[in-house]
Amino acid sequence: MRNRDEEITYLINHGKLWRAKEILQGRIQQMGYDTDQYERYGQILLAMNDNIQAGKYLFLSGIRKTEYEECIRLYINRYTTKNKTTIIDTFPKAVRIADDDSYPPQLLEDLKFLDLTPDLIRQIKPVFTSYSRTMTKLETFFFFAIAFILIAAFLIGVYNGLLSFIGWLF
Q1: What's the whole-model pTM score?
Q2: What range does the domain containing 44 cover?
Q3: Beta strands in the chain (DSSP E)
Q4: With CB atoms 3.0 to 4.6 Å apart as the test, which of 19, 116, 139, 159 could cross-link to 111 if both were Cys?
């Protein structure tokens, strides 16, 4: 296979949607705002019946086809019921930092209908859902202290066990 696009097409045609999804997901994270890739990723998600996520990427692609309407509606309804800016939290970083002229005309129209603008999208900081963080110095100290105590207890147990075993032999 000459390139990733051909590989993705091959995988889709042979029913290997998960692998195609993984490859395209990686490309989307590495590339800028590419509406063609967003549509293709949305199509894969739609084929996998992940309708809300499909709606997200199809919405952001700016492409509106009849078969996309239901999942786009599900996505918009899911994230605009409480607060109109909640939907922005779901946008990938590439969409958040994109220039105004990067947005497809249909998406700009839809954002305007939702009372959202590209400037507002850039102003709202992303909500991090990852719980990973670095340990504080005190936490690091306790981690290593407990690890040291456990290793020392293990080694003392092994030493006493060997002494007992040797005493039993002789």
Answers
A1: 0.69
A2: 4-123
A3: none
A4: 116
